Amino acid sequence: MFQAPVSRLATASVLLAACGAAAAALAGPLYRIHTVELDSALMMIAAGFVAGALALIPGGVGLVATFGLHGKRGRGRALAGLALGLGVVVVAGPKVYGAVLGPNLHDLVTTEDDPPSFRALAPARERAGSAVDYPGGAVAERQAEAHPELTGRDYPHDVSEILSAAESAALGLEWTVARTDMQGELEATARSYWLGIVHDIVIRVEDDGDHRRVDARAATRGGEADVGDNARLVSDFYEELEAQLER
């Protein structure tokens, strides 16, 4: 009895998608245990994304080849390759976009003229080889172009009330608070869910006449790569702070 051959394209699709998924999935653990540097981990995710995207081509063609009177076997492999490849693209895509096409804001501030300073977190940044002082220059220009909305915000509340709300906001965002100075500063760290990248954050509250000015700074520790997390951290903080102040 004649048995149709298995589609080679279907097989290639599932193998390619599996390699892409493995590369992207291993990037985080390898970076967390300091086996690879951040740039290398991001390259692994990018390679996984490319492999996942390429797997969609033979997967689609291989799936079509399984239909018809003389269709080949391997429909399950083709479907698996398509599903796995699409999953890798969807999950890794935002990271790849942020690392490759994003503005690379490894140090982001809401005020360039007088950026908040790291104090409690300064030694950790120095040990990691990360700058303590805000670099400005090209980084500031990229931020102004990509996120003009990220500026300091004014609130009518007392400094102590804002700092208390800021600490609650930080804890609500699952940050680790390193220092709270009731005179007007809070320092904390956040860790990204996949790669475990550490982001150092400082919040400053200043009395400015009839209102209080809240500025923020978020900087990547251990490298100058950014996948859009610093901008997200600052935006999430302001949103959570305002939710706390309204309670």
Structure write-up:
With 247 residues, the protein is of the alpha+beta class. It has two domains: 8-101; 107-245, TATA-Binding Protein, CATH 3.30.310. It contains seven helices and six strands, in the order H-H-H-E-H-H-E-H-E-E-E-E-H. Strands 1, 2, 3, 4, 5 and 6 form a six-stranded antiparallel β-sheet that branches. Strand 5 (198-208) and strand 6 form a beta hairpin. The longest helix is centred in the first third of the chain and has 28 residues, at 38-65. It is elongated, with a radius of gyration of 24 Å. This is DUF1499 domain-containing protein. The chain crosses the membrane at residues 43-67, 79-97. InterPro entries: DUF1499. Pfam families: DUF1499. Residues 1-27 form the signal peptide.
List the helices and strands and how they pair.
Elements (H helix, E strand, L loop, with lengths): L7 H25 L5 H28 L9 H27 L5 E3 L12 H6 L10 H9 L6 E3 L3 H14 L3 E6 L3 E7 L6 E11 L2 E10 L8 H17 L2
Helix pairs in contact: 1-2, 1-3, 2-3, 6-7
Descriptive key words:
247 residues; alpha+beta; TATA-Binding Protein; 2 domains; 6-stranded antiparallel β-sheet; 6 strands; elongated; transmembrane helix
